[in-house]
Structures are given as C-alpha cells and as structure tokens.
Amino acid sequence: MKTYDAIVIGAGPGGYPCAIRLAQLKQKTLCIEKEQPGGVCLNWGCIPSKALISAAHLYEKSQAGGSMGIKVSGVELDPEQLQNWKEGIVKKLTGGVRSLLKGNGAELMTGTATIVGPNRVDVALPDGSVEQVEATKGIVIATGSTTIEIPTFKFDGDAIIGAKEAVSLRRIPKRLLVIGGGVIGLELGMVYQAFGSQLTVVEALPELLTGVDPDCTKVVEKRILKRGGTIYKGAKALGYEKQKDGSVGVKIQVDGKEQTIVVDTVLVAVGMRPSSKGLGLEKVGVTVDQRGFIPTDRTGRTNIPSIYAVGDVSGPPLLAHKATKEGEIVAEVIAGHKAEKDWVAIPGAIFTDPEIATAGLTEAEAKAKGLEISVGKFPFAALGKAMAMNETEGFVKIVADKKTKQVLGVHIVGPEASTMISEAALSLEMAAFLEDISLTIHPHPTLGESLMEAAAHAMGAAIHIANR
Ligand code: NAD
Asked: SS3 sequence, 224-263?
C-alpha cells in the first residue's frame, strides 16, 4: 500500500489548490480525480460560462456602436467556432492544473475514491483494479456538488438540459425557457438572449436571485425585459410535452392558472447538491447533515479528526473562491501550521448583464441584525468613465453602521462590478470606515470612483450627485 502525508479527493477549485499548497509545504500528497482536473469550475462552470459571456458582450456591443458613431454590419455568430474557442480555453486550463500539481510535487491519480478508514482510501482505477492508499496526516474531501434534476424535467441532453450541456450548445435555440431564476439561469439565459434566443425565465420564488440586494436584481431584470424576455415569478414548472416538430410545450402555473409555453430548449437551473454520496462516509462515521453537506470546524476538520472537507461539499456558499481559500487553509492545518477560516466576507460576483457583485451585509440583513444603518448610493449614470464606456446602467451601494460609519456591505450592479468588489472585500476585511474609502484617492476617470463617491454619499458629501 502506498503511503502519503495527505490525500485529497477531488481536483476542483477546492481540491487542486489544497494539493498544491500541501506539496509546497513539503507534504507527500496524492490528489485523486475521477474526471478531468479542474472540477465544475474549469470544465463546465465558471470559466466556460465566462467565455460565452464575454463573447455575448462582444457580439452585442459590436452591433450597438451606432450611437458612438461606429457602424458595423454583417456581424455573424458562428456557434461551432465559439465552442471550439471555449474548449481550447478549458483544455489549456485543465492541462495547466495537471502541470501545476506535478510542478509542485503533488501526485495526480485518475480514479474514483472511497474512504474505507480514517486514514485509508480505496481508488477504483479506470482499468477496473483497485489501489489502496493511506494518508498518515489527513484525507481532504473536495468532491464539490452536482446539478439538481427535477423529476418532471429529466435531462435528455437535447431539449431538456442542465448547465453542463448549456455551455456546450453548438446551435442557438430560437426559444429558450430557463427553470430557475438563480445565478446559472440568469447568467446563461442572458448569454443566449444576447445571441438571439427568445428568453423565458420561470422562478418559483417571488423574486429572482433571492438573497441579492433587490435594487441590484431590478436592474438586471429590466435588461432582460428590455431585450424582449419574459419573466414569471412565483411560478411552477409542472411538466412538458414534446411536440411533433421537436419543440417542447412547457406547462407552467402562475397565479393559480396553468399555461403552456412552447420553446425549443429548456435549461433546468434549480441549484446544486453536495457530492457526498458514495464516498463511504457512513462507514467511517463522518457526519453529513440533512442536505448532504459535511459540517466542519474552523480548521476544516470534520467530526473525524483525520478527515477534512472543503468547498461546495462542506456547505454554502457554493463558490469556487470560497473552496480555494478553504483548500489552502486545510493544507496549512495538515502541514502543522496555525490556520483557520477567519474571513469577514465572501464576495460574490454574478455575471449577468450588467454584472452584480456583493460583499458583506445587504440593507435587509443589517436591519435584521438590529443595526442602525446609513446607505450611500452612486449611480453609474453620473460617472464620466461609465458614460465614456456607454455603460451607465447600475450603481454602487454602500451600507454602513450609522453611528460608527464602519462599512458593513457593498452591492454593485453595473460594468465591471465583479472586478470592483475586491476593493469592497478588502475594506470589510480591514474593518474600513466610510472615510477610509472616501478619503482614498481613486484615479480619475475610472469606474472605481463610484465606490469613493458612494462612501461619500453615505456621509452626505458626494461631489457628483445630490446629497440628502
Ligand atoms: P441557485 O440556487 O442560484 O438558483 C436556483 C433557483 O431556482 C432559485 O432561485 C430557486 O428558487 C429556483 N428554483 C428551485 N426549484 C425550482 C422549480 N422547481 N421551479 C422554478 N424555480 C425553481 O442555483 P443555480 O443557479 O443552479 O446555481 C447553483 C450554484 O452554483 C449556486 O449555489 C451558485 O452560487 C453557484 N454558481 C455561482 C456562480 C457565480 O458566482 N457567478 C455562477 C454559477 C453558479
């Protein structure tokens, strides 16, 4: 039996950085992956979807330059070439993960792992044999999450698809219905809407993107409607019937009334579930909660001291950057360093059009905590750089403690929101006050000035908009 210091199960954005960091810390490390390295994120999630999103922006922008005096004709989309380009990026990145693991001295094994003891793992190899391996210091579960399927909308790889298939379409559906107005539904729904699909969104809850600042969501919602999309909220997707011409009649219930919407493709994006089944957890006694997540302490340890869990499988939010940070922390812990999960905020970035990015508390969350708040808001419509970019929709909102002026949360909807949120995350980590942001000189002309102005606005001192 081969013996390692640490075994990491899964080579996604939680597992592979964990294995790399372990190897950097001179731990003999094995990373086991049953598919390509990179996990959902690199193979069919974050990166492939962002490739499509940037292509969609370019496609839209190239046709919308008229007001800037740029007239482009004959813009054509070649979905085959788009897919080939996207697949090239995926290949480069997954290959890069292999090289990084190797370069740092971690071993990558292709196979399916089962935990058979507090320090032991069996790996079913592609040739049908089983290899037994041992970890003297720790086993890290980094198995991620899998797409939830609705029984009445089973994926058929053709008309009823999940996100995995949706990032690989080589034909643009004329009519696309998305079940689930969450992150995936809106990001991918808007990509195909930009490419010309007639988009319908069916969301079960009263609002899209539940939990996100509703003012931010409204801006995205308005964009979907402006492009001719339809949104049903508080609606149930009951089932579907295939029509003779290959289209799909989707039966939905809104306000107690049933109706049928005929489309070509249905994207089911109703969430992800932790991949904690089939790992042998019951046998070794690792606690799994009712939803399938593996609870851990601040060091990433499960109830079994030699077994750790990171990323989606260890609980929400299901975000790659949270998984990576947890993976790095657990690597340090296994290597004997003092490390623990000790962050103020996990920023979120939603790549809709325009983007939404958030860090810290929303107004509603702060109020629910009984905090007295002041709110500053700066619209991109008042910002020179945004005007020069011809992207003036959206705003930056800063929520702060009314008395102390400490920043509690930042919510951005608009151009480059995902890039700008890092300043907000740093502000929260450093316990910044409104003055820290407003007194920091932000270069002009940049989108970042909107953060400075929003902080000033919360104190009644914004320069380029009226203060209350
Ligand atoms: P989600 O939880 O964001 O959204 C799912 C939506 O589907 C919810 O609004 C829910 O109310 C709705 N829903 C559930 N059942 C339904 C039904 N039967 N009919 C209609 N609506 C229904 O999940 P997702 O969009 O599938 O994304 C999965 C995970 O991946 C999320 O946790 C998300 O954080 C993560 N993700 C993040 C990003 C990003 O950060 N940019 C991008 C993609 C995915």
From this structure: HHHCCCEEECCEEEEEEEECCCCCEEEEEEECCEEEEEEE
